[in-house]
Structures are given as structure tokens and as C-alpha cells.
Amino acid sequence: MATLEEIRKEITRLDEDLLQLLSRRKTLSIEVARSKQATHRPIRDEHREQELLERLIAQGRPLGLSAYYINQVYRLIIEDSVLSQQAFIQEQLNGQGGDGASIAFLGPVGSYSSLAARKYLSRHVGAIHECSCSTFQDVIQSVESGQVEFGVLPIENTSSGSINEVYDLMQHTSLSIVGELTLPIEHCLLAATETTESHIRTIYAHPQPIQQCSNYLQTRMAEVRLEYCDSSSAAMAKVRELNSPEAAALGSAAGGALFGLMPIAERLANQTDNITRFIVVARKAIDVAMQVPAKTTLILSTAQKAGSLVEALLILRNHDINMTKLESRPIQGNPWEEMFYIDVAANLNDTAMQTALRELNAIARSMKVLGCYPSEDVRPTQLPAYLMPTPL
Predict the structure, then answer these.
(1) What pLDDT score does 295 carry?
(2) What angle do CA 157, 158, 162 make, to 5 degrees?
């Protein structure tokens, strides 16, 4: 019988083999992207994805692998393949990519925005030059001035809703939205030393995590003092500096590890699926290949009369353009007037979209396209009901 050490060595060898195979698979997926680029075929082939999963589930069962396990593993593999192919085609179209890029974000390294910045650029470039900023306005100014190429900004959260400050800043900038991404937000209570929840007297956090964890804070930590910080990283840095069993920060476990903090409570958000959507901005707009799923964001000010917004939305419906987001914000300096932010699942260069924009421009008081960019919303491959996996 093999010893524990021998078994672990065999697992290590298998893990190394798996990494080599995954790398080879990713290389082949880029070759697929080259072919699709030449033949103008869509990035996703959901029928093939479904056939692949059905075949793998059938092959895995005799090997002791459940449908749930196979589906979870290949969901990540398929998503990475789709996004990598999209990134490759976009780089070829816009002349992007290369050895490195610079990006600005809110807070020091370790903040949720910095994790989002790394995630976005990981598929596009090699080295990353990071620029931490203390405010959203600083992020925008860093890009506008040419100090960095990109800026990443949180725009909405499934728990706390839209981030109004970012929407307001986008009214006045000349920057274009060139990308989006989502990041699961898993809030933890982080401490610098061995302690428990009952010993905590002060929690340091950015306002967003406080809002997103309000149920936990009100029920479990009602007597604890809350100290607001400019970012989650600033909160973690403060707790590291204090090194006290009575101080804790709200943030991610990954971010906390960068500051030597340990989680003493996990999964604290009001919603189980707590996800933040980020936008990426740059000085120059990009083109999106027609085979890549695209989103277009615009801001619209309608006439101050009944039915004006409905009239505008009917134009989108009449051209079969799906609206994915509608957000209203006050027009600064114009009391009681509103600007509408609209996201649509459409390519700016599509004929229907161009026609709709002309019609919107004819009835709107003002209109501005903020950007057209690849959609990173990769829906899971649908399986037949009898194959739908369930957790064990």
C-alpha cells in the first residue's frame, strides 16, 4: 500500500500534467479564433458546446465523475476559451495587446478594483503597471491626462445597486468605455491577529462593503463602531497597522492576504451572489468585431414632456435591440431634469443600431455614445433537463 507521501507525489505529477494539457487546449482555442476571424464566424457555437458537455458527461460517469463535477469544471474552461478568443480577435482588430499596459483603479493594491484591473488585463497583455488612486475622479483624470492607458471603475453591484458617483462622472468625461467585467465579491471580516467576532470593537471599511453587509453588521455586530475608509485596501492597511484583536476590516480574503490579514468570518454579504460589474475606460474608442457579442452604452436626455422616454425606448424595440440597463441620474446644474444611461446588447456598427441612433438623435435633447465594447457576459451552456447536474 502506497504511503501518504507517495500518493501526494502522484497527485502533484497529475496536476502538472493537467496544467500542460490546459495550456495546450488554450493554445488550440486561439487557433480556433484565427479561423473564426478569417471566416467571420461567431465566437460562440453553443450547439457544439452542448454536444461537448453531453459527450463528456456520458464518458465521465463510468469513471466515477458526476455530471455536476464535469459541468462545473468545463463551465470555467468554456468561459475562459470564449473570453480568450474574444480578446485575441479584438487585439487583432484594434492593434492592442503587447508586452504591457498601465491601468488606474480605486485604492491601493489589494482593493476589489485592483483585483478587477488585474483580471481584465490578464487576457490582454503581459506586464501590468498599476496606478492606485484615492477617488474615482482621480482614476478618470489619470486616463484623461495620458498617465495610464486604462481605468477601471465599478458601475453597479447586485447587492447595493448602481454606483451613482461613477455615473455622474461619466456625464462629463471624454473617455470611452472599452471593456467590462464582473467580479464576485466575497466579503470577509479580516483581522491582523488571532481573535474572534466577539472581541471586535471597531470595523474599518469602504462604504460599499458596509452597505452590502448591512444585515450582518446590524444583527451580529450592532455594538461595533464603524470607521469609513476611502477603499477596502485602506481599511486593511489600517487594521494591519493597529495589529489589535479589537480591530477588523471588511474585504476579500485575497486582498487581506496581501496585508497579512486572516479571515475570522466569511460570506457576509446580504446576497449570496454578490457581484460587482466594472467598466474599463480609455482615451480612444475601439471597434468591436461583428462576430464578438457587443454592448453599447449611451446617455440620453429626452424632451420634458409626457411619454418622451417611452418614445425613445420604443425605437430600440422597433429595431429589435435588447436593452440590458436603464439608469436615471440628475443633470448637474439643471434641477428636476434627468439624464438616462442605457446599455444595449448591440454593436455600434450594426445597421439596426446606426438607424436607431439616428432616430434617437432626432427626438432627444442631447445624446452621447459612451462606448461600444465586447460583452463579457458568457452564459453557461444549456443542457437538456435530464442532464442538468445537481450538487451532491
Answers:
(1) 96
(2) 40
**Plot region of 107 (φ>0 → left; ψ -120 to 50 → alpha; else → beta):** left
For 180-228, write each residue's pLDDT tens digit: 999 888 899 999 999 999 999 999 998 989 998 999 999 999 999 999 9
Nearest alpha carbon to residue 125 among 91, 92, 151, 154: 91
- State the pTM of this model: 0.78
Separation in Å, CA 49 to CA 19, 78, 378, 380: 22, 8, 12, 10
For residue 82, give every residue at least 6 positions away whose Cβ sits within 8 Å of its Cβ, in sequence order, or none. Answer: 43, 44, 378
Q: Give the C-alpha separation, 216 to 382, whole Å.
A: 35
Q: What domains can you pick out in the chain, each with its CATH number?
A: 7-93 (1.20.59.10), 100-184+275-282 (3.40.190.10), 188-265 (3.40.190.10), 294-374 (3.30.70.260)
Closest CA to 195 of 285, 264, 242, 287: 264
DSSP 353: H
- Helices marked H in the chain — which ranges? 4-39, 46-60, 67-94, 112-122, 136-144, 164-170, 207-212, 214-219, 232-242, 253-258, 308-318, 351-363
CB 315: neighbour CB atoms within 10 A? 18
384: pLDDT strictly greater than 90: no
H/E stretch holding 66 reads none
For the chain, helix, strand, coil in percent to 5 are 45, 25, 35
Residue 280 near residue 113 (C-beta atoms within 8 A): no
Residue that is written with C-alpha cell 495610464 in the block: 148
Q: What are phi and psi of 53, to 5 degrees?
A: -65, -40
